[in-house]
User: Fold N-acyl-L-homoserine lactone synthetase from Desulfocapsa sulfexigens.
Amino acid sequence: MGYFFEEDLRMQTLTTKEEKNAAFRLRYQVFAEELKWVSGNENKKEIDSYDSKCLQVGVFAKNRLIACLRIHFPTDRFMIENEFKEIIGNHKIQKTPQTIEVTRFCIANDLRKSQVSTKYGMFPIVMALEKAFYNWCRSNDKDTVYMVVSNHFFRLLNLLGMPCTAVAPAVTMPDGVVAIAAISTWTAFEKFTATKKPALLAWFQDLEQLNIEQMVI
Assistant:
């Protein structure tokens, strides 16, 4: 299991064609080749109809994109309202200007057990992406986050200090994955970590060493 020094990572919104293509390729590796949740294609990029209206945030290590996620805005329909509407039960999606949806959350397969070395301690590499996401949300007045994740990732997020609440019972999808529609807020995260994981909150709010670029839209 390797580790990165904090100053060696760069987090940013993905705006150039090259950056977006790097995300599409990483997404393809995870969602088409590894998980087989989407069909394969010759150009080995995972792109769908949502991408034209969404924003992607990523983490780079020495110019390699190692993690990324996609943000959906409340002015458009969420995936949870379309492709995943059957798993939200009777829950009514609450859309406000402060609400977003996160999808296509992925980490490079060979780095998922890596750690980030910081002055606050060691953290899983997934938390570098969460830190990027947190600071983008706080810079853009977003607090409530909807997501559909596997039950494994749902438990992992809560274990790592990211409080998530299921909005309906878990559902077994046709491919056998147990999926959970969930909601979280950064306000709840800050309240929880302030008492339970203060080092994590201090790291998320410390922007001195970890390079953060283009975080305000």
